[in-house]
Amino acid sequence: MSLFTQKMKMLTAVVLDGYSDAVVKALLEEGVMDFVHISQLDGEQASRLSSHKADIPTGAISDLRGRCENLMKLGSIELPSISKADVDALGKLDMEECRKALDRLSGSLSSIREDQKNLSQRLVSCDELLSYVKEKKTEYLDLRVGTIAPDRKLDDFRARLSAYTAVVAQDGRGSLVSLSLRRDVSRIDEVMDKFGWTESPKADKDSLEIAARALEERRASLQSRMDELADQVRQKVADEGDDLRRRWILLRVSELSGHVESYFSYTRNTTLFSGWVPASRAGEVESVIYEAAKGKCIIEWTEDSEVDRSSIPTSVSSAKVLSPFERMVKNYGTPEYGSINPTPFTTVAYIIMFALMFADVGQGLILLLIGIIGGQWYRRHPMAKDGLISRYLCSLLMFLGPASMVGGALFGSYFGYSWLPAIWFNYHAVVNGHAEGGLVSSVYDILGITIKFGIAVIFTGLVLNWINLVRKRRFLELVFDKNGLVGGVMYALGIYACYYFVDTGYRAFPTSPALYIGLCICLLLIIVKGPVYAAHKAKLSGHREKVSSVIVDTIMDFFVQVLEIFSSFLSNTLSFMRVAGLGIAHVSLMTAFEDMAAMTGNALAYVLIMILGNVIVIAIEGLSAGIQSLRLNYYEFFTKYFTGHGIAYEPVGLKSRVVID
Question: Counting Cβ atoms within 10 Å, is residue 48 exposed (0-12), middle (13-18) or buried (19+)?
Answer without folding.
Answer: exposed
